[in-house]
């Protein structure tokens, strides 16, 4: 890993929209303020400037490519039944819809920038529990499925590796891309954790509870290196979930803060060394200390700026 005293690349492409955070119950388990807090944390590093790209405001129409049309329009119009909304776990609002349908455009923009510059970071994204016709686990639409499918359909890439290191399995991504031969889904997650009904990724590695840094980093390194050699992907979509951290309220692994730094550094440097563009999304992270959570999510951005 490069020294934290190395100069940061202030030209690192970053993607963010101000609608990602809005007034929301601060006691809710999902920290809606984390996106704005992450923006401020990254800005404090001196990484916000002409390199910041804002995606267009979203609507359900683009998401029809990968989602059930009835589902996303009923979601947009607040016409889903209570049971379906409970499964999502977030209270409906116009602000929530604005951010929900803008964020996938942000991940797509990040991927396009990564293809041009080698690496780019989205200050949101990673909604991997969203399925074709329902939402789950705070995820309503799947930005990873949308981005990879769009890029392939537009002919910008031939194949994509979705490398998901959130502590929770990327069940929605796995299910939605199961029959897409041009996208390979890999999820390395805590096995005995949500979702309790897993969907088969192209490669799943279920980790035991309380796994620590050395074993975890070895698995990540060997898996990613092997996949890049086997697949030769045109792009890696990296879900850098920080809920693997030992004090995360929804994680069950014992990965240290330094372990998170080493993980993100090795993923990014492995991609760089193989000449594979990598686009990062922040994935999950849960913490009653909201500013500490933002600092955790900023780790992947800092490591990308150290390349």
Automatic annotation (TrEMBL):
**Keywords assigned by UniProt, alphabetized:** Hydrolase
Q: Where are the transmembrane segments?
A: none
Return the Pfam families for the record: Hist_deacetyl (PF00850)
Which biological process annotations from GO are given for this protein?
Answer: epigenetic regulation of gene expression
Q: Which domain of life is it from?
A: Bacteria
- The answer, when asked if Hydrolase is one of the entry's keywords, is yes
Record-level Gene Ontology MF annotations? histone deacetylase activity; hydrolase activity
Domain Histone deacetylase spans what residues?
A: 28-296
Q: Does the keyword Plastid apply?
A: no
Q: Which family does it belong to?
A: Belongs to the histone deacetylase family.
Any idea what this protein is called?
Histone deacetylase
Q: Which organism is it from?
A: Pseudoalteromonas phenolica
């Amino acid at each position: 890993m490069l020294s934290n005293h190395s100069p940061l690349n202030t030209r690192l492409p970053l993607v963010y929209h101000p609608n990602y955070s809005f007034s929301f119950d601060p006691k809710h388990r999902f920290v809606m303020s984390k996106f704005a807090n992450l923006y401020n944390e990254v800005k404090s590093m001196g990484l916000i400037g002409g390199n910041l790209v804002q995606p267009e405001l979203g609507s359900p129409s683009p998401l029809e490519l990968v989602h059930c049309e009835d589902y996303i329009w009923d979601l947009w119009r607040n016409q889903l039944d209570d049971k379906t909304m409970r499964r999502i776990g977030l209270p409906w609002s116009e602000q929530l819809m604005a951010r929900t349908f803008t964020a996938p455009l942000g991940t797509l923009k990040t991927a396009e920038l990564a293809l041009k510059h080698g690496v780019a970071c989205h200050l949101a994204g990673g909604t991997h529990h969203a399925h074709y016709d329902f939402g789950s686990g705070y995820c309503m639409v799947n930005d990873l499925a949308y981005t990879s499918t769009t890029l392939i359909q537009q002919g910008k890439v031939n194949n994509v590796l979705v490398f998901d290191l959130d502590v929770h399995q990327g069940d929605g991504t796995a299910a939605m891309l199961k029959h897409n031969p041009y996208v390979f889904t890999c999820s390395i997650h805590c096995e005995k954790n949500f979702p309790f009904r897993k969907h088969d990724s192209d490669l799943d590695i279920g980790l035991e509870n309380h796994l620590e840094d050395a074993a975890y980093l070895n698995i990540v390194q060997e898996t990613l290196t092997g996949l890049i050699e086997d697949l030769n992907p045109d792009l890696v979509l990296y879900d850098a979930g920080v809920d693997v951290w030992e004090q995360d309220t929804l994680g069950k692994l014992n990965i240290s803060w330094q372990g998170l730094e080493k993980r993100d550094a090795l993923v990014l440097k492995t991609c760089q060394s193989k000449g594979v563009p990598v686009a990062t999304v922040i994935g999950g992270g849960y913490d009653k200390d909201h500013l500490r959570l933002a600092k955790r999510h900023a780790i992947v951005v800092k490591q990308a700026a150290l390349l």
